[in-house]
Amino acid sequence: MHDFFAGSGLVGLGLAGMFRPIWANDSCPRKADVYRSNSCGEHFVLGDVRNVRGLDLPFAHLSWASFPCQDLSLAGPMGGIEASRSGLVWEWLRVVRETSPRPALLVMENVTGLLSAGGGEHFRKLHVALGEAGYRAGAVVLDAAIFLPQSRPRVFVIAVTAGARVPEELVSKGPCWLHSSAASSLGASLPDWIWWSAPEPEIRRPRLNDILEPDLPFDRDGVLRLLGPRHKAALDALENAVSTGYRRTRNGRQLLELRFDGMAGCLRTPDGGSSKQFLVVKKNGRAGARLLSPRETARLMGAPDGFVLPVRPNDAYRAMGDAVALPVARFLGKAILAKLAESIYGATTGQSWRFREEGLTRRRTLQTDDIGRDGQTESDGRSELPWPQTTTILAPVTPSRTSRLRASSTYSGLSSIPTYFRPVFRHTWPTVPDPKNGSITKSPRSEEARTQGNTSSGGKVAKCAPVKGLVGSRHTVRKARQPPPSAGSRTASQS
């Protein structure tokens, strides 16, 4: 997959086992440090998306764009989709148009204002542009509150190439639980709209108490003086309480507004004085206040405790406030995107995906071992992914890529993640054609060739070094354990 505006990389982690990031981009150096520290990806390109050219990108089945939301958010200037920041979506669409061959799947993620701002006119422009580029699309709204104790509704625009086969199970005849009133209104009036559908998941989320760090000092008690009469009365009426709140300006007066539903408010970036979320805990009649810690914000986004965060709190708040909640990306991948990819690209037994370049092709086999939701292996030791365990793929080989193809490697960057989120990829290259003379040689099986990480030119293995200014339980990538595959159980991994 291509991961545009990748930020800290939670989308790639959420889609692990279904789609593999082969190219990622962001313009923020501090987010780039977080991404590289957690994925060890040489595929990350730091720079302005306006400088990206589609013809330079490797082929991918999915292009994901979490484009900036400032001009579409109620908390921002509402400049609209043509403004300087949210308008970068047009640069992404330009890159998609330039890519050859184009990805058959597109996903755009943003705040719900994308659907409602300007009476829906901003989204109409985007929908029409997708149609002109040869895609059919529909929008769904998912709230992280289904999986996490954080209220975080987000819009996901899912598009497929016109003429692509879409399984009937993924489409409904009208609005369903995935569609807000704004999405329903737009879908009824726009051409080539797809009513995406998926089974509604059971609400399974940890409590707010479960994600807190218990030993941190409450050093912001003075903020309790900003409580308005209604919120103060609600807090006074409780003997014990755990709540979160933001400072807001009402009628020229700054107030602390709390919520008592066991949920955190939507995380924000630290730009601005009221963007940091407070935690208020009352125990045995005594209340204390502090800011949510960086690790707590990471847990509210579904990131595991092994996820490496910046040392500076504001950098950590920014990395999480701009991110996509990991379980939401995971659900979207398993419920819709993976099934679409299976249908479009034919990831089934006996079929193959064929791409040719300069008449030179190579056969490769991809295998995946995955871990179940409860941290244990599934009954058959395999993932719940909808396709078989092994798929034969024909893919192009060029001289510039030969050195990468000569080594077997384990997908990097997930060793610090608990088993719930840690699929283990084993890429096996049975034969590799030499581009100079066309001869077939066996891929090396040395210990160095099996070391986790991407390979660089010359056949050397590129290892991930710690990034200064970042903290976490692990700073280096270690080889993941790989149980032997059971006979007859098969899966395919996609880019």
Structural account:
- With 495 residues, this protein is an alpha+beta fold.
- The chain folds into three domains: 2-202 and 321-339, 3-Layer(aba) Sandwich (Rossmann fold), CATH 3.40.50.150; 214-292, no CATH class; 350-471, no CATH class.
- It is 20% helix and 20% strand.
- The protein has eleven helices and 19 strands.
- The strands form five sheets. Strands 3-2-1-4-5-7-6 form a seven-stranded mixed beta sheet, sandwiched between helices.
- Helix 1 (10-14) links the parallel strand 1 (2-4) and strand 2.
- Helix 8 runs parallel beside helix 9 (313-321).
- The longest helix has 20 residues, at 326-345.
- It is globular.
